[in-house]
Amino acid sequence: MTEKKEEEKGPGKVEGAETAPAKERELKGSYDTMQPTRMGGVYMPPHKVRQMQQAMLEKDDKYGPVKQKYLWEVLRKSINGIVNKVNVSNIENVILELLNENLLRGKGLLIRAIMHSQMASPNFTHVYAALISVINTKLPDHGRLLVHRYIQQFQRSFKRNNKITCMGTTKMLAHLVNQQVVHELLALELLALLLESPTEDSVEIAADFMTECGQVLSEITPAGVNAIFERFRGILHEGQIDKRVQYIIENLFAVRKNNFASHPGVIPELDLVEDDDKIVHEISLSSDLNVEPELNVFHFDPNYEKTENEWQAIKTEILGEEEERLNKKHPQGEEEAEEEQEEDKNDPNAILDFSEKDLINLRRIIYLTIMSSIDFEECTHKLLKLNIREGQELELVNMIIECCICLLYTSDAADERSSVDLGGRRNIKKKK
Length: 432
Hints:
The protein is built from 18 helices and 2 strands. It is mostly helical.
């Protein structure tokens, strides 16, 4: 029996010799299966994904390659989510959320997220420009990298005659000029290039670019703006372009006559940086561009903990300055607001509302929030963001129960009728 066992093992084989490599392959396979792919990959329940992640992190070292790659994916998703939700009303809160992330490690991720979001939603270009203008005052290298990548994107789209990408890129560059992230000479160079050998597309892009940043350029370099408009006038008098483009140029002259009142360079809500704090990058179209493509992908950092400590020190300094800026902009602090509320309570002549109007509005908001949610996770997330004051928790519970009863009643009604539409969530059809 012992001879057979030795033969089965084979010569030179030792028990447990392949245990470590097998575990590494199993760990790598589990991690690769867990990562989302562009095609969607294989669906796995969230609880199973969490279990695999926990097992993976326990097997790996403290800051080994697997754990660093996992933290990289978490950072990428977090930055993308924060950038995608920015708008005029919440930009200050979004800036604080971004500064809490490790922007030193996620430098390439942040720039790529802003570029993708801006190209997907050109109407929010002025918001993204204001966002990067604030970050540029704290981390100038991020602003420089963004400008370099946008210039490279413009050069590529201009050579390939990609009008859509070219228009989106020039729109962002125009608002970066408005926010004084980049020098105005770049705008004049870009306009001169577009109007050097005018075509219908190049003249249209140049007119849109001048419409976006004409107000700021008129204040900074009026002589340059006059030269550009003389070139527009010459193209119009030549009459070699299409009638539609001629109307665009005429409309541009009308906008200039009104001092770009309908197209302000920076709206008051997005004027977030003081003139003394602005950092202007002097970059031209002929400058050597360093787009740093290696920042878009994961790289193992042997000094991971040291880098994290460096970012913590930078973040502490940045957030302290940001809070001071917000306090200057909003001098009335929370303590003053609480004092005013206490004075209102103690005021004998204060008007008390016994009509339960606030309660009715709260119930309406809770109902609409629940009924408009796709699933329970979205519903929970939205309900937690509501400002439920102390003593109103009971109303929240009552509304959840009433909404459940309403959905059950609607489902019963669907069995009796042919079909019923439950707010876009499902369509129940009667069985024949």
